[in-house]
Amino acid sequence: MSNVLVLVDHTAGVVRKTTAELLTIARRLGEPVAVFIGDNASEALPALGQYGATKVIALTNPELSQYLVSPKAEALQQVAAKIEPSVILISSNAEGKEIAARLAVKLESGLITDAVDVQEGPVTTQSVFAGNYTVKSKITKGTAIITVKPNAATPEAAETSPEVEEFDVTISDAAKTARITESKPRAATGRPELTEAAIIVSGGRGTGGDFGPVEAFADSLGAAVGASRAAVDSGWYPHAYQVGQTGKTVSPQLYVAAGISGAIQHRAGMQTSKTIVAINKDNEAPIFELVDFGVVGDLHKVLPAATEEVTKR
Ligand code: FAD
Hints:
Elements: E1 3-7, E2 10-11, E3 14-15, H1 17-29, E4 31-37, H2 41-50, E5 55-59, H3 63-66, H4 70-83, E6 87-91, H5 94-107, E7 111-115, E8 117-119, E9 123-128, E10 133-138, E11 144-148, E12 164-166, E13 199-203, H6 212-221, E14 224-227, H7 229-233, E15 254-258, H8 264-267, E16 275-280, E17 293-296, H9 299-312
Parallel strand pairs: 1-4, 1-6, 4-5, 5-12, 6-11, 7-11, 13-14, 13-15, 15-16, 16-17
Antiparallel strand pairs: 2-3, 8-9, 9-10
Helix pairs in contact: 4-5, 6-9
Subunit structure: Heterodimer of an alpha and a beta subunit.
Keywords: Electron transport, FAD, Flavoprotein, Transport
Family: Belongs to the ETF alpha-subunit/FixB family.
């Protein structure tokens, strides 16, 4: 079986759920080999073994965390030369996509970004043109490099006992172009990260600026909070939580849109969600064309009632 390289997405050794999803996909395609950048690979080992990594290659060169992006692409090029993977899977976040693009140039390989599914082949599924088309594609040149969106697969455990193998890479001066001078975690909300969350409750202009009911309902479900651009532009919620064409693209199991009309630019960021629920007081709001369940009503009444019901259970 050919090797499938998975770049581990983690924070200080704590592996993100997206990596479990990538490993689950990797097992459909070959032998998953995890590449861990940082010096705490041993902390990540149980999580990587739980989802079937057969080996963990640890890259501990300090330049990899001191500089943005380019050294990581150089390092992955060297790992690829060593293990000759048929596929490289990377999380579809801003850094992951940039690493993937640079790596594709270095390996002269085809690249597919933002896959919402990857099956044997590998054949990928993507949503394109603001979500108006779904396409299936296959890379025909070199090592298939694919960035995969969060929630593209349900993590399936497959216990292995991988060993950590340290691998020393050489980082050129040319790659040391952008040094990280400060790194601060965002103030913790206690909620899941928007692009990784299984459930998202989003509020729009219909909230009238009061996100209290949206946040309370999200918390009752253990969900993340999102916002439409109208809510963000009004200064009601930070831009980091905007869903849509000029915000984040999300694909949760459940997306609840409260007081959001369903403009095409908002849909572009959420219409691949598995189940969509809308609460809107206008029964002709375009969002209702898209939903699995719709509630016509005032979100300030519907959301507290739903929160109470969920909290009771
Ligand atoms: P509105 O369209 O004003 O809708 C508010 C809805 O709330 C209405 O349907 C109304 O019936 C309902 N409502 C009002 N009161 C209540 C209540 N009490 N209870 C229940 N329902 C209520 N938008 C995005 O969201 N994300 C983007 O990334 C984005 N990018 C854009 C990029 C470009 C280039 C452009 C031109 C636009 C972009 N937009 C984006 C803006 C987009 O076109 C819409 O203007 C925006 O999505 C509207 O937000 P909204 O649905 O919250 O507000």
